[in-house]
Amino acid sequence: MSRLSEALSGARPGVKGSMSGPELFFPQSDIDSLFNAMTTGMRELSWSLGKGVKKAAWSIANTLGTSTRVSKKLRTFTPDIKDAHRRKLQKSRNAKLARRGMSDLKHTFDDPLFVTKTRKGKQVKFRAKNKNAAKKSKYIIIKNSGLAKASWKFGMKKLGSGGSMSDITKSARYFGSKHIQVDSNLGGNDPHVKITNSVGYIRQAMKGGEHRVDTAMERAGSSLMHQIENTLREKLGLARA
Q1: Computed from CA positions of residues 213, 215, 218, 220, in that sequence, does the dihedral angle turn out positive or negative?
Q2: Do 85 and 127 fall within a single domain?
Q3: Are residues 163 and 218 part of one domain?
Q4: Which residues contact 215 (CB under 8 A, 6 or more apart)?
Q5: 3-state secondary structure of 78
Q6: Which of 9, 18, 19, 104 has its C-alpha lying 20 to 30 A from 1's C-alpha?
Q7: Which H helix or E strand runs over 114?
Q8: If pLDDT is split at 50, 70 and 90, which confidence band does 91 have?
Q9: Longest CA pairwise span in the chain (Å)
Q10: 218 and 151 within one domain
């Protein structure tokens, strides 16, 4: 099982997690950046320690979700070459017979064959009347398009707001909620949040590959600081038009 676990606490722990087996460690400077943003919010906006930790965890889920691709809604498909050639020859034969006032009563056309591949690369052949009909085939429609992104969205939702899911299929939304787990304790002197994502291909779904995972902590810190600055501008009546 692929997993990403982020442990955040007021004691400023080393933040680590694992995805696809090996553990993922973030640079201490990036961790410091995130915690500096969190403490700024606590100082300038009177956040409690628990709220600061929650905001930091939300920012991590948000940056990972923003950097996650949404796959195409349809798989690529092409006409089967041998079947297309056979049909072309038969149509030519039928045309010649028709010009003689005859017809080939022995031959009836099946729907043409199309070829596609599953996510794991297995070739699949299926019949459809035409290209428009093929696009509606169960072999072509990707039901869980956006599953990886949806999982992060639900993680964010459990920590506040999940944002829009307009580009994610209904099936992906349903299963996305099953692939994310958020464990938190935001009270007391040792608040913490742990996010576990069990989507098996979560790394591969990242825009820019693993680099986007490794820099998640840095980007989360920058994002959180940006939110704090905007809130302060609004409080001071300096919000941008």
Answers
A1: negative
A2: yes
A3: yes
A4: 30
A5: strand
A6: 9
A7: strand 113-117
A8: confident
A9: 93
A10: yes
Last residue of some domain: 134, 162, 179? 134
What residues are paired with 18 via a beta bridge? 23
CB within 8 Å of 145: residues ≥ 6 apart: 70, 71, 72, 73, 168, 169, 172
Q: How many residues does the chain have?
A: 241
What is residue 68's DSSP assignment? B
Determine the average pLDDT of the residues in 183-194: 88
Average pLDDT over residues 214-234: 88
Extract the runs of DSSP E, i.e. beta strands, from 26-94. 77-79
Indicate the pLDDT class of residue 228, thresholds 50, 70 and 90.
Answer: very high
Task: Compute the C-alpha angle 147/202/226, nearest 5°.
Answer: 90
pLDDT of residue 28: 79
One domain for residues 55 and 125: no
- Distance (Å, rounded) from C-alpha 228 to C-alpha 121? 46
Confidence of residue 190 (pLDDT cuts 50, 70, 90): confident
Identify which of 219, 163, 183, 150 has the alpha carbon closest to the alpha carbon of residue 53: 183
Expressed as residue numbers, the domain containing 185 is: 5-72+144-235
Q: Among residues of the chain, what percentage have pLDDT more than 70?
A: 82
| Assigned domain for 240 exists | no
Number of folded domains that form the chain? 2
What percent of the chain shows pLDDT beyond 90?
A: 42
- Considering only CA atoms, give the Rg of the chain: 26
